[in-house]
Amino acid sequence: MEFDKTVELIEKKSKFIGYCLHCKTVEEVQKALNELKNRHKKATHICFAYSLSSPFLEKAVDDGEPGGTAGRPILSVLQKKNIQDVCVFVVRYFGGIKLGAGGLVRMYTKTASEVLK
Hints:
Elements: E1 5-11, E2 14-22, H1 26-39, E3 45-53, E4 56-61, H2 71-80, E5 86-93, H3 100-115
């Protein structure tokens, strides 16, 4: 599967890898998620959010991160930029230093913003 763009950021030894994918269906999102799970078998989390236009559908997934610290911030970036038919995935490898809720929100937001530039 070919993603439209990727970006990698490091914060306190945690690695955040963002992927952007133009998509029209939930099935495309699921296929991309399965691909990322195969590519990043040792990742701690694969969080994502998408916004589809027809039918209108939005979803945010934290994948084990504290509630509202990952998927929701990614979805907020899509909403603020008024972008639809796109899914943003952020793969996180935990680096051993806890970032706290605020740090997680900042890094997921920053990674999503960077991959959408």
